[in-house]
Structure formats: C-alpha cells, structure tokens
C-alpha cells in the first residue's frame, strides 16, 4: 500500500493452506513467522526455513514498492492511497488433478492474469496492456510459471498438508438454532443460525413442504470465528399461519446426514439469541452499501514455492513487474 492505514502495513505477505493462515510477513515485524502450531516443526527437515523466507520477503517488499510507484507513474497518479496485489496458488484434487492460477490487482480491481493453458496473459484494464505485451513476448517466462504452479507448488502443498493434516482434516459440525422475529403486515422472519463449524463449506437453505424455497430469503456470509471455526445464517419472511410448513436444511462435512429443523415454540423467549440475530441482520444489511477492499500481497515460501489457498495470496521473489 502506498499510504497504509492504522494497523495496515506497507507490505503484507501471507500463506494459506485451504483456509488456514500458516505463515505471515509484514513490513513492521520484518520477519516471516509461523501462524499455526502445526507448521512450526518444518525446520527439522528444512533448515533455516523462516530465515530464508524472511530474506525473500524483504526483497519482495522492496520490489513491490517499486512496482507500485511505477504503476502510479504510468497512470499519472502523483499521490493518494493505492494498492498493488499479486494472488496465486495451486491445488491438488483427490483424483490427482493439478490446477493453478496467478493474477494481479491494482487498487482492488483485476489488472492482469495468466492463462497457463495458452501461456498468454489477459489484461483486465487498458493500462495493463503494456504489461501484457511484455509478458506475452517472454514465452519462456510463462512456461516457467506453468511448471512452477503445476509441479513445484504442488510439491510444497503436499509438504504443508503432511504437517497440518490433523488440523486440516478436522471436522466440527455446526450448532444450529432457529429464531423468530415478528414483523409488519402479518409477516414474520424466521432465522436459521449455524455456528462453530469447520471446514468453511456449508449449505444452509429453507424448504417449504420439503421443497427448496428461496422467495423472501436472505443469506449471511460465512464468517470466521476467533477459534478458526465459522458461523452463518439464513432468514426467510413468511406468513405466521404457514410457519409449520418451513424447515431449515443444513448440510456440512461434519454432519453424518443433513440436519432439518422446524420451528418449535420455546418454553420462554430466548431474548439473548433474538438480540444477537437481530444485530447480525442489521449489520449484514448495512454492509450491503459498503465497499470493502481487502488487498494483500503474499510472499511465497521456501524459494518461490506456493501452496493451495482458498485465499491464495503470494509474491514470487523473481516476478518483477517491469
């Protein structure tokens, strides 16, 4: 970032395996550091792992600052707050399929990305065509990236998964509760809230008479908790006289079978739950009008080797912009 805000450094690099943040470097600490206990033993087999990645992150920090200044110059921007981001990652399917991607963003908007199948670059911005011409002319460089994403990156993915297998394979089923809010004009809202689950993937839907029903529904995002679990909610506006016809349907890897809940009158009102759900609905509504830019440049680990990420943000040490 050209003008970092409070709590946001000039340069930030993070590594993820699936949705777990396992490594981090920033321009304040100047150190690559483990973020989860399961990655700490890696230096037993890869000596000086964190020192080597600290040096690479320092070099990338300097290069990213230069890249950002170059971008501002090319777009005639003399000041203001701007961001430069590189995101890449690789994945390995259960069937052995290998995938990978690499893309750039400037000020939160797509800038350019690599099509590793055709070994060409796709410009998402008119200003990116200079970069595109430069990269398309260097076929050997694009071939190198393809090999990296499909081979070298995948090997490091296997290494990281081996260290974090127990944590990455953990299954925490959701705790699901229903709440009811009275509305106007003979309408009310039923809210189905799931919390404390891991992994992130979950399906929460409303059904009417056993059939999927989307009319009058709102979905909350899947939001992380401090303990690395997640929570979410889905609401539906209904006629109170038809309340008995609706059920919340929840599917999650931690559940042996889908969970189906229908509204039951409580012995006494759960005012604490209702207040929490109301606050969540209000907050979600407010966010609909807010633009949020979360821009991170990520540093690769161990010699430019990446990992599979659900939010895979890295910076290859040898990928200068110009």
UniProtKB/TrEMBL annotation:
SMART domains for the chain = IGc1
Taken from the record, one Pfam family name reads MHC_I
Q: Which GO terms describe its biological process?
A: antigen processing and presentation of peptide antigen via MHC class I; immune response
Query: How is this protein named in the record?
Result: Ig-like domain-containing protein
- Topology in membrane: Single-pass type I membrane protein
Q: Cross-referenced PANTHER family, in alphabetical order? A: MAJOR HISTOCOMPATIBILITY COMPLEX CLASS I-RELATED GENE PROTEIN (PTHR16675:SF242), MHC CLASS I-RELATED (PTHR16675)
What Gene3D superfamilies does its record include? Answer: Immunoglobulins (2.60.40.10), MHC class I-like antigen recognition-like (3.30.500.10)
Could you list the residue ranges that cross the membrane?
271-296
Any single GO CC term annotated in Swiss-Prot or TrEMBL for this entry: MHC class I protein complex
